[in-house]
Design goal:
The protein is built from ten helices and nine strands. It is α/β, with parallel strands linked by helices and about 290 residues long. The protein has a single domain, classed as Rossmann fold (3-Layer(aba) Sandwich), CATH 3.40.50.720. The strands form two sheets. Strands 3-2-1-4-6-7-9 form a seven-stranded parallel beta sheet, sandwiched between helices. The chain has a two-stranded parallel sheet with strand order 5-8. Helix 1 links the parallel strand 1 and strand 2. Helix 4 packs parallel to helix 5. Bound molecules: nicotinamide-adenine-dinucleotide (NAD). The site of nicotinamide-adenine-dinucleotide (NAD) has 26 residues, from helix 1, helix 4, strand 6 and helix 6.
Length: about 290
């Protein structure tokens, strides 16, 4: 029997790569339901599947902020079960906190936090009844440590950690494994899709010069990190595969070890060490 996988946020990035990899598995192990909010964006996924067998892939509409669309997608699963649920959809929000509108902050929390939780909710009863299943969530190092100018994004990803940890404890008793795949920077459309306050944005006129100066430095840091250290989606997909293929998957997987020492500071040195270390990493770049 094929493993039935449902993935959210498959129109680009990590979700798209994972869907393609699982659907084109040489052993045809998986039946993949690749879901996306906007079906008019399915061309890229179809293009990536060209020349590969297509009977292992179905594309469904699913907006993780819309409960009915989640239930409709669930009802269209022919096998009437899923073995692996991948909560991957997410968006970023970047800029000085004082310029963020309540609506944009709400949107980030709705997609990243409630979107993940709602999706899990919809599939949980069936998975429990099966006494079997995997829930994989695309996590972020921004869910483990704070990042300046990403307060609401980090809050949403921290919250996802809390929800997953809580579920993992309970779901052990149902033979359901929860795993977070913690990513650092990855080359995807994430930076294009995120809601970012651009330096020329009129909303920044109300922001003090010290904040603006630091924001500029942060953006510079961000660009250089993405240029020098970003992973490709294939690297992330390998980690997902490790988790999927492991008979007893770990709760957390780290896709790269570069961020780990900073994260550890939080636990081993609960004073200001982490705060000053991160500040140095981000803001100590030379003025250009
Ligand atoms: P991406 O922007 O290419 O992919 C995100 C996908 O989520 C998009 O296809 C988008 O359409 C979809 N999406 C947004 N709102 C949705 C909604 N309401 N319903 C359904 N789908 C929705 O970027 P990505 O890097 O592939 O992001 C995937 C996940 O990885 C996100 O959760 C993100 O937070 C996480 N992540 C990314 C990075 C990175 O640097 N790229 C780092 C850490 C974590």
């Amino acid at each position: 029997d094929k493993k039935v996988v449902l993935i959210t946020g498959c129109s680009s990035g990590i979700g798209l790569s994972l869907a393609v990899r699982l659907a084109s598995d040489p052993d045809k192990t998986f039946k993949v339901y690749a879901t996306m909010r906007n079906l008019s964006k399915k061309e890229r996924l179809l293009e990536s599947m060209k020349g590969l067998h297509r009977d292992t892939l179905d594309i469904l509409q699913m907006d993780v902020t819309d409960r009915q669309s989640i239930l409709d997608a669930r009802d269209r699963i022919v096998e009437k079960r899923i073995n692996i649920l991948v909560c991957n959809a997410g968006v970023g929000l970047m800029g000085p906190l004082e310029v963020q509108s309540l609506n944009s902050m709400r949107h980030i929390l709705e997609v990243n936090l409630l979107g993940t939780i709602q999706t899990i909710q919809a599939f949980l009863p069936k998975m429990k009844a099966q006494s079997q299943g995997r829930i994989l969530v695309t996590g972020s190092t921004g869910g483990l440590h704070g990042l300046p100018f990403n307060e609401v994004y980090c809050a949403s990803k921290f919250a996802v950690e809390g929800a997953c940890e809580s579920l993992a404890i309970l779901l052990q008793h149902f033979n359901i494994h929860v795993s977070l795949i913690e990513c650092g920077p990855v080359n995807t459309d994430f930076l294009v899709n995120l809601q970012k306050t651009e330096l020329g944005d009129t909303s920044l006129q109300q922001v003090d010069t010290q904040t603006l100066r630091l924001y500029e430095k942060y953006l510079q840091h961000c660009r250089s990190v993405f240029q020098n250290a970003a992973q490709d989606t294939e690297d992330i997909v390998k980690v997902f595969l490790d988790a999927i293929q492991s008979p007893s998957p770990a709760f957390r997987y780290f896709t790269s070890t570069t961020g780990a020492p900073v994260t550890q500071l939080k636990v081993t040195e609960p004073d200001e060490s982490y705060i000053s270390a991160m500040s140095k990493i981000i803001f100590s770049t030379e003025e250009q």
